[in-house]
């Protein structure tokens, strides 16, 4: 170990003494490993210990996620995008149409006037068919998305760092700045990083190793997005 006491004389070498300027009669010693480098030795002779520089590990700055998107992920995304705000309107309209068809069927059993039943029941039947088409549209959209873009169903890797988001997959690689994110939404099983109203990065929660990594990712993201929070989708998001 290297031991230095400071007096008024210049200190050169091991064991010499020097008075610390401005501290009359005060003495102190600095202990340093014998293997300390020239920079530390120079700093010690100046009466200032060289601070230990800690380089942040890569895991502190970067969150790496990898996995394969499933068809169900795209179905959930499509339903979330389509009915996030209007799900209750669709549900009420669908139930009304369904109830009208049921009443028409019940009237068929209770009366023999088929013409009246046909006239009153047909509008509800057509309305029910319409809402069935509307409700199943996101599912059909997800199937079309999978069929027309093979790359999105292949393994993909996401790297979230202080600089932005890097995604790498089969025959493609992209870098996105956090400033380009329009919104970040959360459902029961997905994080949706929207670049525009109809275009989002799908990040299934199963890609995270554990809750700790997910919390780290939340903190990294919320420090860099505006507004600085991940928004739950709402009632519909509890089921998607």
Structure description:
- This protein folds into two domains: 2-45, no CATH class; 61-238, no CATH class.
- It is elongated, with a radius of gyration of 34 Å.
- A hairpin with a 4-residue loop joins β4 (155-160) and β5 (165-169).
- The strands form three sheets. It has a four-stranded antiparallel beta sheet with strand order 3-4-5-6. Strands 9-8-7-10 form a four-stranded mixed beta sheet, with helices on one face. Strands 1-2 form a two-stranded antiparallel ribbon.
- The longest helix is centred in the middle third of the chain and has 35 residues, at 114-148.
- Mean pLDDT is 76; it is low at 1-59.
- α3 packs across α5 (114-148) and α4 runs antiparallel to α5.
- The chain has 240 residues and is α+β, with helices and mostly antiparallel strands.
- It is built from six helices and ten strands, in the order ββααβαααββββββαβ.
- The two termini are 63 Å apart.
Summarize the structure.
This protein is α+β, with helices and mostly antiparallel strands.
Would you identify the regions where 5 or more consecutive residues have pLDDT less than 50?
1-59
Helix/sheet category = alpha+beta
Radius of gyration: 34 Å
Q: How many distinct domains?
A: 2
